[in-house]
Design a protein that fits this description.
binds magnesium ion, three-stranded antiparallel beta sheet, 9 strands, 189 residues, six-stranded mixed beta sheet, single chain, alpha/beta, 4 helices, binds inosinic acid
């Protein structure tokens, strides 16, 4: 059977308005990989740790883009969870699934899909430091600076976005819409 490529129009769904299209995502991820590769030049054994689940598409693309810069991808994951509801996290974070790689003495690139209040990334960074990471570099695809509650500035940001709830490119709302190839805003009901 011949392979067909769905048109972007077909992948648009009711209740979600496109914010960042797939070409802009691909271009920015390639640029980020270039910046991260420069920062890691000459550093042995860099480990990329992603926060599941939302990071999985961004991380897959970034790791492959990094390999084009000759950076060998060693990857690990951890899952952190916020108490509260999906759209209104409480700020109290717990570790749902612990770190699956040994980071002691290593430089770690900690990656997440979205930096919102900052609680998740700050918590994960602390866990990596407690596990003995020599240096933690942070990289997020999306940043909502207006929502910050914890003073954390990421080293690498894909796009700054306003205070809105987004889905797609791995990011979900109640488990839905991770498969969208673009990032879209969930319209208020
Ligand atoms: P923080 O701890 O408030 O910074 O939240 C970061 C996490 O909340 C991200 O890793 C996402 O899983 C989730 N999150 C924050 N904003 C959104 C959004 O707009 N859509 C979907 N998930 C979000
Ligand atoms: Mg998350």
């Amino acid at each position: 059977m011949a392979a067909t490529r769905p048109s972007p129009e077909k992948s648009e769904i009711p209740g979600v308005s496109p914010l960042i299209d797939e070409h802009a995502l691909a271009k920015r991820v390639t640029e980020m990989a270039g910046d991260i590769a420069v920062q890691c030049e000459g550093v042995e054994g860099v480990i990329r740790v992603g926060l599941l689940k939302g990071v999985f598409v961004f991380m897959a693309d970034l790791v492959r883009a990094l390999s084009r810069h000759g950076v060998q991808p060693t990857v690990g994951f951890m899952t952190v969870e916020s108490y509260g509801s999906e759209k209104a996290p409480s700020g109290a974070i717990h570790l749902k699934r612990g770190l699956d790689v040994d980071v002691s003495g290593r430089t770690v690139i900690l990656m997440d899909d979205i930096l919102d209040t900052g609680h998740s990334l700050a918590f994960a960074r602390r866990k990596l430091e407690e596990a003995g990471a020599a240096r933690v570099i942070t990289a997020v695809l999306l940043d909502k600076p207006s929502r910050r509650e914890v003073p954390i500035e990421p080293d690498h940001v894909g796009f700054e976005i306003p205070d809105c709830f987004v889905v797609g490119y791995g990011i979900d709302y109640a488990g839905q819409h991770r498969e969208l190839p673009y990032v879209g805003v969930v319209e208020e009901e």
